[in-house]
Amino acid sequence: MSSAIRPRRSVLYMPGANARALDKARSLDADVLILDLEDAVAPDAKAQARSQVAAALREGGYGRRECVVRINALDTPWGRDDVQAIARAGADAVLLPKVQSAAELGALAQALDAAGAPAGLPLWAMAETPLGFLRLDAIACGHPRLAAIVVGTSDLVKDLHARHTPSRDETLLARSLAVMAARAHGLAVLDGVHLDLHDDAGLAAACRQGRDQGFDGKTLIHPKQIAAANAAFAPTEDELASARKRLDAWRAAQAAGQGVAVVDGALVENLHAEEAERVLALAAAIARA
């Protein structure tokens, strides 16, 4: 199990038009970098951003960080050029914004293949529109190269005519649908951004909420948010101790021919053993990073 787990606690958007930011990202403690060619880049800077991101990827130096490029949608004036520029640049995955159908993922895969991208280059999909969330089950199983769902709460709140609230109740249903679809189809799932850079307490609360809801990590808009996400989405020492204890008891029960174990008065069944193994594997993967 441990070999299949990759930490994605902190997922930082980096504007592709900012060469200094692309360089600084090599030293940041983020698990994932989303090198952005879409929302973070003005139309007149699209070509510059595309060139800089491709060059940064080829130069490398990002170490264990997972580098994902968010391209512009294929039906925009920039999407096809984005694919051509980054197909062979060395990205770990390509993130498609505002996905509303599985067919869009198929079109992206075809475009990448035609541009000479590595076979099987993973696709990531952003869910950020009402229609996209309503179709998430079909999208999540719609292409074999899809590896992750990224929740975009800012665009969703706008489209819903809703308001951002500290509780995030306005996006609860959508976020739950994303987690459900991801878990049903074996994908990673990443929570939306926290927009207030001065609200450290709110950021920490949102990270805990996302972790409690089942997300693998949180998308971020500034390096100062990385530490909170890394802390919230990593197993605590108490969780690790409990996982080891439950797993040891379960294995002992299995060796004795028993179907269940009891730890501190609580029943431990196969499902608890599997979750304990997952938690321990995640901790081991974080330690190796």
UniProtKB/TrEMBL annotation:
Keyword list, A-Z: Lyase, Magnesium, Metal-binding
Coiled-coil portions: none
Domain HpcH/HpaI aldolase/citrate lyase stretches: 9-223
Gene Ontology terms for molecular function: lyase activity
Pfam families per UniProt: HpcH_HpaI
Record keyword Ribonucleoprotein present: no
Cofactor: Mg(2+)
Protein name in UniProt: CoA ester lyase
Source species: Achromobacter veterisilvae
